[in-house]
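Minutes, project check-in
Item: structure for the 378-residue chain
Input as provided by the requester:
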Amino acid sequence: MGDALEELEAYAGEAKLYLKPVGLVDSPQWHEDKNTRLNNSLIWFSQIEYLIIANGRPNLRGLVNITQWPEWSNALPEPLARRAATLFTHLTRQHEPLTCGERIIRFDQPHVMGILNITPDSFSDGGKHQDDPDKAAEAGLAMAAAGASILDIGGESTRPGADPVWEGDEIKRVQPVIERLAHCGAVLSIDTRKAAVMEAAIAAGAHLINDVSALLHDKRSLEVAGISGVPVVLMHAPSSGRDPHKSEGYGNIVTDTLDWLEQRIADVVAAGFEREKIIIDPGLGFGKTLTDNLALMNNIAMFHTLGQPLLIGASRKRMIGALSKEAPVDKRLGGSIAFAHHAIQQGGQIVRVHDVPETVQALQIWRGMRDAGLTAAL
């Protein structure tokens, strides 16, 4: 860093540091002490890309080999040196397993979350399972049998322009389906922004809360989540109001989203929620342009510095159509798998998808390649 490090001393207090693990290594045993494991995943990295941002000054970027990291990070001025130590600890943190009813979710391998919408107007499968809990439960059982570790059950569409649903109607949609799937072997997630729906779903057998508003839409949600003791997914969206897609734009979509999630995690933990039960989601497609979404996908690995398991939901989203000659929703399988594979390759622990069998097969192939790399001999 040289002269830049000396200059940094003058404004370190107003600067912020971001890290990204890069230089992924297929066979880490061939390069002993030159790489380190990304949390408890099947991925090892050999370099760290750093970004230092301070208002009114040029951004500082660079690469540091993992062998040089201790010396480099310790040479940073305070408080950047302290933040560097915290972020590196988060990168290499061993995520504890989540106990979800009869199922334990371990984070030493990626998981598929199957989407089960009990709605008339969801952008991809609206109306498919509406008003027929038996049919919806059969679809959920098929996803579990195909390899979905988690089923995400929702009764309100959050697509752009969707009308809000009264909590009583939302409960009527999801509760009977959850009751029928309570012992299917998969973790049941309730996809909702409403505290009353969370309570009803957990009473029916749900094991996890997935809230696109990060427990901000309903002022009772944080209390309900804390009392229930179930894990929660905190997702970034530009608004916690009626329309989660309402956005005024971003300065830097990646660092803005990171900063927001970092603060939200801190607030939820400060309110008494267990950090070990928090999963994060950068909220692809929620109030974000194609350029924003691609920037997030290209920098997924940065989100591991938040220290939490990471969920990515890109399945069938509009950005796939935008990149593939406006392919309609039902013709986006290839793009969905491409994004899921990329998320897993960057260490994402959970991918939320519509097409469970195909995605599970893709991840099985990825897992086979990783296992071969980790056991290969010279």
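Outcome recorded: The radius of gyration is 21 Å.
No further action items on this chain.
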